[in-house]
């Protein structure tokens, strides 16, 4: 069946992710209009990750927690304690270990909705190295049937093409669900883009407030001897210079102001809208945390009492955010590696070694152990363990290597 309706470009030419209307929207944004950031991956990463503390901490918290989970490799009958694939995963390349590789992969999925993992080696054998590729440099090339026929990786003016031949792809593409895109995923940072703009604007407002002696500025009213209310050009320039030099900035906070005749200082206090501005910033921070699935309590955001305690929030964070992400990514990577090696293998997180889920694990084991109507094999199956006596703990890696 040909999926012609999935074709996005004619002739199989590479497509680009960036929107052509982004620069136009930015150019026409003027006074009285809200100027939102362009919704491309590079800009969103800059304003939402490197330029926003809530987005930065959310991505780091999820990626580090997910990459720290131990992984298990098994087939339908046994769980491997030693395997060539486990060796490659533990040391995927000379510059990275397992945790660093998967942290980069999870972060790419969170920031762009897409993660790309490259395998170095020959198809049909265990890969020699694994590398995470930057998603902002990767573009998918769809074929006549809508499925990818290649991936283009562009750096500067140079481009490398990864060909997909007979369904064999040297690149594993992990993507989040996107309701209106057939080839790319939707990232949480895109859903939180509006809240990120609000939070960054509030931070800039607070910085400007601090630069102006940490209070709203007042007004200088001029009344000349002849009743005129306008300063000459020289008087205006001199007054502006004096204000900028001696009466603005944190260094000059609290310095008394000496005004000449005809000038009257009218101080201004905080308005109710100014007092509510900090609450707007905190609400935006909670929306950013909500988009990433991080309980605001774990980020130190005040005003959130959804969870009874920190421990409960941590369990919800692992159960609702970390584990679904790890299960999805490891399943995709495991399936891709299985096709490459020709073995029916499954790569998944070891839930028995997650400290945050120890209470739930103890309760589950107690319930299963107390079920007298279940056999030992049924209990092991319920706990996700291979059949008894089929473990290959400590198997000889050299003997397994001969099977490839």
Automatic annotation (TrEMBL):
Pfam families, per the entry: Phage_portal (PF04860)
InterPro entries per the UniProt record, alphabetical: Phage/GTA_portal, Portal_HK97
NCBIfam families with a match to the protein in the record: portal_HK97
Protein name: HK97 family phage portal protein
């Amino acid at each position: 069946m040909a999926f012609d309706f999935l074709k996005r470009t004619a002739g199989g030419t590479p497509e680009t992710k960036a929107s052509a209307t982004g620069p136009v929207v930015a150019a026409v944004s003027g006074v009285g209009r809200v100027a939102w950031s362009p919704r491309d991956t590079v800009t969103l990463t800059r304003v939402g990750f490197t330029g926003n503390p809530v987005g930065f901490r959310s991505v780091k918290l999820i990626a580090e927690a997910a990459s720290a989970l131990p992984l298990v490799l098994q087939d339908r009958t046994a769980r491997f304690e030693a395997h060539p694939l486990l060796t490659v995963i533990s040391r995927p390349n000379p510059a990275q270990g397992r945790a660093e590789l998967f942290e980069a992969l999870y972060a790419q999925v969170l920031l762009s909705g897409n993660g790309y993992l490259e395998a170095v080696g020959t198809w049909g054998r265990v890969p020699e190295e694994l590398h995470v590729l930057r998603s902002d440099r990767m573009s998918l090339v769809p074929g006549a049937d809508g499925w990818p026929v290649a991936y283009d990786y562009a750096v500067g003016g140079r481009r490398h093409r990864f060909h997909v031949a007979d369904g064999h792809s040297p690149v594993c593409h992990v993507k989040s669900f996107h309701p209106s895109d057939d080839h790319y995923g939707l990232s949480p940072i895109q859903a939180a883009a509006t809240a990120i703009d609000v939070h960054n604007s509030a931070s800039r407002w607070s910085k400007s407030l601090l630069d102006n002696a940490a209070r709203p500025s007042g007004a200088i009213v001029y009344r000349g001897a002849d009743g005129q209310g306008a300063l000459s050009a020289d008087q205006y320039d001199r007054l502006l210079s004096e204000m900028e030099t001696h009466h603005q900035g944190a260094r000059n906070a609290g310095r008394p102001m000496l005004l000449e005749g005809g000038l009257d200082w009218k101080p201004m206090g905080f308005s109710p809208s100014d007092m509510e501005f900090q609450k707007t910033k905190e609400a935006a921070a909670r929306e950013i945390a909500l988009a990433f699935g991080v309980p605001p309590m774990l980020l130190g955001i005040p005003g959130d009492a959804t969870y009874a305690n920190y421990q409960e929030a941590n369990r919800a964070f692992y159960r609702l955010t970390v584990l679904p992400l790890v299960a999805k990514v490891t399943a995709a990577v495991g399936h891709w590696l299985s096709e490459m090696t020709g073995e029916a293998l499954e790569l998944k997180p070891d839930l028995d070694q997650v400290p945050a889920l120890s209470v739930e694990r103890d309760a589950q084991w107690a319930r299963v152990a107390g079920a007298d109507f279940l056999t030992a094999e049924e209990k092991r199956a319920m706990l996700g363990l291979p059949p008894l006596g089929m473990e290959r703990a400590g198997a000889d890696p050299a003997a397994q290597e001969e099977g490839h």
